[in-house]
Amino acid sequence: MTDQNKTSEKPWGGRFSEPTDAFVERFTASVGFDQRLYHHDITGSIAHATMLAKVGVLTGEERDQIIDGLNAVKADIEAGRFQWSVSLEDVHMNVEARLTDRIGITGKKLHTGRSRNDQVATDIRLYLRDEIDVIAEELVRLQQGLLDLAEREADTIMPGFTHLQTAQPVTFGHHLMAWFEMLMRDAERLQDCRKRVNVMPLGAAALAGTTYPIDRAFTAELLGFERPTENSLDSVSDRDFAIEFCSFAALLMTHLSRFSEELVLWTSAQFDFIDLPDRFCTGSSIMPQKKNPDVPELVRGKTGRVNGHLVSLLTLMKSQPLAYNKDNQEDKEPLFDTIDTIKGCLKAYADMVPAIRAKADSMREAAKRGFSTATDLADYLVKKGVPFRDAHEIVGKAVAFGVAERRDLADMTLAELQQFSDVIGPDVFDVLTLEGSVQARDHLGGTAPAQVRAAVQRARARLG
Ligand code: ARG
Fold first, then answer.
1. Ligand 1 within 6 A of CB of 238
2. What is the pTM of this model?
3. Which residues on adjacent β-strands are paired with residue 228?
4. pLDDT of 279 strictly over 60
5. Does residue 7 have a pLDDT over 70?
6. Rg (Cα) of the chain, in Å, rounded?
7. What homologous superfamily is domain 14-112 in, according to CATH?
8. With CB atoms 3.0 to 4.6 Å apart as the test, which of 63, 130, 229, 296 could cross-link to 263 if both were Cys?
């Protein structure tokens, strides 16, 4: 990056009598991070020039020169032939200066009827819209991986937990489908946010609109925006769409972090429910036996920065008077880091989920250990005419006996069980087995294997 410091190089240098302080120049510049907007900046400029020619502000020849020039600048950037200059402050002025270097005086006409204020708002929206589409696809890839795994594990029984204490048996497929539902809401939130990203601020100019006979609907159509924004002051100062996106991202990360926590627990020797392939884990430099679930841990850890970026943006906006303020330049780094972080986390998860191996025997043993069919025994007694509260008490006593004897309910004899209630008959063993327990919860949203399979089918249709 070059660091020339001449008043003459600044597109706004006219009213200034001394060069910008060298530190201030670096302090106020955004080109170090906003250069990633170059592609969308050029796309926006091409549409703007096309519109200016349509309404007669530029000639057809000027428009073509500008468009060819901008495409050449883009090629320079992509070929690594572009020297970004800090004294040109940001991506917008760097691109425009290079255009004028290439095509001469006509380049100076491009900025007619616009301002960097509406330009930058347009660029971020164009950029974010593309990133949303990439993120949406990655989210679907992860969801499809979950559906395949849930279908494969529809019959696998594990303990379900409340308070992280064994509660009732569930199927592993059912547990995975809970993750799927969280991601489905994320996907819907993302599409909802996209609607408000996809409106065009260009034409607001600095804040009040412009005196040229612009055709905003035409530019919006060229850029694939749903419509132009309604109010020029709001257009240049609104960053709600970035906050909404970061809020979607924070919730997504919160979900991924919860999955991560479970994967970390489940890979431990204490749970031993699943195996993650070696390629998603790392070892220890001192303890030879270790295989650490680094990917889930890191995803859980990265939730902090994404949640932080949401708070950064909310705080950035909270005291700004209308319309544009330089504060807004601070919107980019949190937004960009949010995008990069969630793309990385989604890729890691979409690659890793299909490779999760369930340790069915271990899950089963754990489900048997915690008296997970105690509720089933209570329900059995109720069906034989015992009031629920009494049934609860009877089963509590049977569990206490099992704790003392170190035996599960299903491992007791009929005579032993009958000590607690004489309505208990030999059919009790149908409900005390893990299979009996999950199969009995056979309704929409329940854990029965048949319901899990049906939920997977419906989910596939919802993904389209
Ligand atoms: N780099 C600036 C930003 O990111 C572009 C807009 C600057 N406008 C201005 N009037 N200083 O917000």
1. no
2. 0.94
3. 200
4. yes
5. no
6. 31
7. Fumarase/aspartase (N-terminal domain) (1.10.275.10)
8. 296
